[in-house]
Specification:
Length: 148
């Protein structure tokens, strides 16, 4: 440890030196599931996506926009497998209503209240999030964490 600190002191004019572990702050458990994304698979994928989308981090304003755009891409990649959308407004459905008579006719809560449907609609949960590492869609489970 002492050798590392002496090297850091020696080269502090040449390199940025940051201490990442602060003992006074307790470790925080994140309740959100870990997501996999093409954007974060490696350095080249990240840099290519930043270049293709003109994302820059040279100013606070650009970094703010680029970060929001990246979060949107990660969110979209997470939900690209979803086939459950409202047939009226095209919103992605986690919970909604399913028609008993019509084949594959689903409505979100707002469209069900606002427009209704001529047949009986049953309340249905289309997607449930299992925080133990997978997303359940209908009958299949999609892992959120990479398998080991």
């Amino acid at each position: 440890n002492q050798k590392i600190f002496s090297l850091m002191e020696k080269y502090k004019e040449v390199f940025f030196v940051l201490k990442l572990n602060i003992d006074s702050v307790p470790f925080t458990l994140d309740p959100n599931p870990a997501l996999t994304s093409d954007l974060m698979d490696g350095r080249s994928g990240f840099l290519t996506m930043c270049r293709d989308n003109h994302w820059e981090f040279s100013s606070r304003r650009q970094a703010y926009y680029s970060t929001k755009a990246m979060l949107f891409v990660v969110h979209q990649q997470m939900f690209n497998f979803i086939e459950f959308t409202c047939d009226r407004c095209r919103a992605v459905l986690c919970k909604g209503y399913n028609c008993e008579s019509c084949k594959d006719y689903d409505l979100c809560y707002i469209c069900h209240i606002r427009f209704g449907h001529k047949h009986t609609m049953n309340e249905k949960t289309f997607i449930t999030f299992d925080l133990s590492a997978s997303v359940t869609t209908g009958s299949s489970k999609i892992p959120l964490l990479p398998s080991e």
